[in-house]
């Protein structure tokens, strides 16, 4: 029996459903982060002492920066998932970009935007 070169249309549909759900959740989280950033300016402490206000603004700035970093990471995750949908459409999804072999289903279920098997990823890190 010859080695399977790509996932079947049924399998691709299963992955597509997993990815669409992850995109939906990721976008919800991203929108939540953006709302947090928009509302971060609304916590006025005008009536408190200037020292307290300075401390408050310092900690707010740090959390704003953290939210921006998280939002950027989330955006990249969404882009990775969307690229995976394109690979499903092209029927190239789940194919290791280094070896051309199929990435195990377990890995794709855990990391649906993966383009490398675990062993290929380890080899890439060694370089």
| Main β-sheet description | none
General form? elongated
Q: State the total count of DSSP E strands.
A: 0
Query: Structural class per helix/strand content?
Result: mainly alpha
Estimate the mean pLDDT confidence.
87
Strand content: under 5%
Question: How far do the termini sit from each other?
Answer: 34 Å
Helix and strand element order? HHHH
Radius of gyration: 21 Å
Helix content: 55-70%
| Oligomeric nature of the chains | single chain
Low-confidence stretches: none
Task: Please count the helical segments.
Answer: 4
How would you summarize the topology of this molecule?
Layout: H1 9-39, H2 50-89, H3 105-110, H4 118-126
Helix pairs in contact: 1-2
